[in-house]
User: Fold this.
Amino acid sequence: MGMQAEVDADKEGEGSLSPSLKRTLDDSTAEELEQLQTDKAKRQASAALEVTFRLLCPVPRSGSVIGKGGEIIKQLRADTGARIRIEECLPNAEERVITISASDTADASWSPAQEALFRVHSRIVEGDNEGELPTGNTSARLLVYGPQIGSLIGKSGTIINSMREETGANIRVLPREALPLCAMEGDELVQIVGEITKVRAALQNVSARLRANPARERSTNGRQPLGANVAHRDAHRDALRNAPHALMGVHHAGHLGLGLANQVAHQQHQITLQAPPPGTDLHYRLLCPSVRTGSLIGRGGGVIPAP
Assistant:
């Protein structure tokens, strides 16, 4: 009986809580839930991100980054914790891409990928003379995925102008015509030129902004180097040169172009040209070696008289 009375008393006490106390307890529970949600959001914000930089390296200097038997690049990977990969050298390319990536957190003050970027750049400009700063101007060239470039330029160029003034380096986003063969479709080329200390300060600024504004997708997914397209086009051009009918191009409003070259390459040199409409002027373009043009012109234009 005594135990039952205690239980009943507890129930009575529970039921006798004042409405204000109940509201206080409910409010505390809501605050705890809100705090849990806030903590979860913070953890998600600081979750690992993938930071990637693509640094251009002159082909003759790539050995300074790789080292004998790959010893230097292995040491760079071990020291920084970043993944460092030297991409394949394309035919006729003057530069190679060094891809540097690492997991990162948004609340970290420094990035393993940034550390690796600086170490690799130092190897490129200093070579085996580590610690000896080069005299005169040097440069750093980065390939940046198009959607990220706005974070470096800013509205009306405010950001890039600010970085120039702050570092003293010449920072430019070069026109598409300047893209190297190893660049990919959709890339932009960022070039930094100046004394080594100024270039490093600018490289820190640029890399920090790229790190804060990562690409929403893997920047190299599904994309091919421009050099691969150039090689493809050259293959078509060579096929055109070797085709039975390649010596002459027939055109009405233009000239023999890549479209016809593709036909030559893909149809095993079988070219079928439709007859032009009646009354259309025809133009033929015959290729002639420079050293043989005199045989056509003649002395004083005697062979081909002026019209």
Remarks:
- The CA atoms of residues 46 and 106 lie 5 Å apart.
